[in-house]
Amino acid sequence: MKMAEEPDLYPLHRAVFEDDKKTLSRLLRKHDITEKDKHGNTALHLAVMLGRKDCVQLLLKHDAPVKVKNGLGWTVLAEAVSYGNRPTISSLVRKFRQQSREQMEVRRPNLVEALNRIEDFYMELKWDFQSWVPLVSRILPSDICKIYKKGANIRLDTTLVDFSDMRWERGDISFIFNGNSEPNESLTVLDNITKVYQRVKYEESEMEIEDEVDLLMSTDILAAQISTKSISFARAQSGWIFREFKKEIVAGQYDSELYTVHGLMLESRKRREHLSSDDLQKNKALLESFTKGGNMQNFDPNGAPVRRSSLSPPPIKNVTWDQYINSEANNYPRLGRDLVYKESSKSFKATIAMSSEFPLSVEMLINVLEVVAPFKHISKLREFITFKLPAGFPVKIEIPILPTVTAKITFQQFDFRDDISKEMFITPNNYIEDPTRFPDL
């Protein structure tokens, strides 16, 4: 029989487990609220999984991190959706938004300083989307992103507004970041066709929070990530008898060495223990309506949104603290609702062209892309180049964007320029503000 862990190990977790709010309040004054136990759970994870609502609020009051994942890869919010208590989910969504803003503001001075250190430039990225699914491959778009940088300002022009596996929205969009503006005015998106603009939300309204809670409670819990546990880069070779390393001139000007990327996996996991069979049928109908231009929101006869109610709590498991903490890592007894779980993974064999001739460094590119990360495909590119790449700059990359879709990105033009007009970073006077134009931003 295993010996019990030291009694003072993970005291916050134990106080939550035993629903000892008085002890928890006292311990929070001197213990690390971000600490994970042997299973990767924070005290907030346990509070959510066990339905300790008062402990949840106490931990959030002390700024417990919401985005952090446990050893099984699930966030606090995912576990809260599984448990199904609506007020708890709402509190976590609010805190998550607040913490995200605060983290961005902490990084902001360094980001602005990094942008100011880079000479002003113009750059073009060509995106070609591909799929191994024949019908999907016919409808996939291509796009050329044009990026202008002047001082601490960035402008990205694109024709690709949003996308999912089967649905692509085209347009004429400009994303503008003004590094020296106030945080709530620094990010603006222009729709150059309808002549409207939207400031990227700095704070969400109560209705927006509750809309998000409804969506979380009525749809699958999803977790998708690019796994790089076994990623490796091998020089691509050509020739049958006399093998030689492959090289390529990218965009007609950058001598590059080609690498094959091995071990790149797109892992997708889905949970739906919080959904009833009726939910699943409704979701299917709503999704079909949405893909045809409908709205996924339900409304009552008076036009008010129909809000999801809290689920009945899952049956109490009667798991003791000793049983939990002495179980094998990540193999502890289930604390909340029994899992209804499905996972899939797909391996990708990609190529990457690295050049020592490109004028920008990878670190500089990461800083630039952080500014425009609200766009999904840009965010995926930034995520990929933070991996430890071979020497040089990735002038051409293939990366998975969705389970069925990969993107080939080519850096086809780059020029340092001193003639970029500051007017490019100002919203035109004839544009009208529309705070709902881009609902995902």
What can you see in these coordinates?
- This protein is an alpha+beta fold and 441 residues long.
- Helices cover 29% and strands 29% of the residues.
- The chain contains twelve helices and 16 strands.
- The protein has helices spanning 11-17, 21-27, 43-49, 53-61, 76-83, 86-117, 134-139, 206-218, 277-291, 321-325, 362-371, 376-385, and strands at residues 121-131, 142-150, 153-163, 168-178, 187-191, 196-199, 221-227, 232-235, 237-238, 244-245, 247-250, 254-271, 341-355, 393-402, 405-416, 432-433.
- The strands form two sheets. Strands 1, 2, 3, 4, 5, 6, 7, 8, 11, 12, 13, 14, 15 and 16 form a 14-stranded mixed β-sheet that branches. A two-stranded antiparallel sheet has the order 9-10.
- It is globular and about 65 Å long.
